[in-house]
Design brief:
Length: 283
């Protein structure tokens, strides 16, 4: 595995693969890699001949008072994991590479970035859309792989690629979970043992709602009620939102039909966690 830091080095390797008619897959990350990330790397390796992974903790997607400074960083361990999982090139850009002095160009998104994460984390998707656009332009992959744990982010990126006519296919992979259902996340490392036990309630609440829908419930308001009720039974959970939305627009719905996403965001102690379950409904 090669490790590069500059766009010129990155370009050299990608262009050399192009000359060999090899396809390029890309997995952008913020590091602190876990099995969820590594699953995306393996998926990229299935879809492309060569795999590029970037590690960049993007300052513009963190709001005031969020965890940018304490976000876990361990590039040495991350590099070892990637080498084991078949990554061909690790891109480690400096902040000055992505945001050079005088940088003033940003990507502002409309729907589906306006609600939920967009509402509770103002500026978050502006930062995400900007850095993803830059990374896609730098790597120029044939395919980029994102996890479904950040369902709204995935929808935003799909819209971004469509609206800006970026020549890349966006692939996704289902959320990778711990044995008790908690979605794997770099932020899980912040949780105390007691908080970690409480966090299992998130998936339990989503699973309860999925079961109600499978049994025939079609009122979105009834599902929201169940979602909130289960979450609030756990005293360590501070609920931020619990919503049922259309999978394409991320607008709230009244009747459950077609493609939906149930999403939650909670605080447990000082840690903010998100999760979701998507469903396809017949009829």
């Amino acid at each position: 595995m090669e490790t590069v830091r500059s766009p010129d080095e990155l370009r050299y390797w990608v262009e050399s693969w192009r000359l060999e008619s090899r396809s390029v897959g890309f997995v952008p990350t913020m590091g602190a890699l876990h099995e969820g990330h590594l699953t995306l790397v393996r998926r990229a390796a299935e879809l492309a001949d060569r795999v590029v992974v970037s590690i960049f903790v993007n300052p513009t997607q963190f709001g005031a008072g969020e965890d940018f400074e304490r976000y876990p960083r361990n590039v040495e361990l991350d590099s070892e994991l990637l080498q084991e999982k078949g990554c061909h090139l690790l891109f480690l850009p400096e902040t000055e590479t992505i945001y050079p002095e005088g940088h003033s160009t940003y990507v502002d998104m409309g729907a589906p970035a306006e609600r939920l994460e967009g509402e509770f984390r103002p500026g978050h998707f502006r930062g995400v859309a900007t850095v993803v656009t830059q990374l896609l332009n730098l790597v120029r992959p044939d395919i980029a792989v994102f996890g479904e744990k950040d369902a709204q982010q995935l929808a935003v990126i799909r819209r971004l690629v469509r609206d800006l006519h970026l020549p890349v296919e966006i692939a996704s992979h289902p959320t990778v979970r711990e044995p008790d259902g908690l979605a794997m996340s770099s932020r899980n490392a912040y949780l105390s043992d007691e908080e970690r036990a409480a966090a299992a309630t998130i998936y339990r609440a989503l699973s309860s709602c999925r079961q109600h829908i499978e049994q025939g419930e079609r009122s979105a308001q009834a599902i929201r009620h169940v979602l909130r009720e289960v979450l609030l039974q756990e005293p360590l959970i501070d609920l931020e939102y619990a919503e049922v939305v259309d999978a394409a627009t991320f607008e709230p719905i009244l009747k459950i039909r077609s493609s939906i996403v149930m999403l939650v965001a909670v605080h447990i102690g000082k840690t903010r966690l998100i999760d979701n379950i998507s469903m396809e409904i017949d009829g």
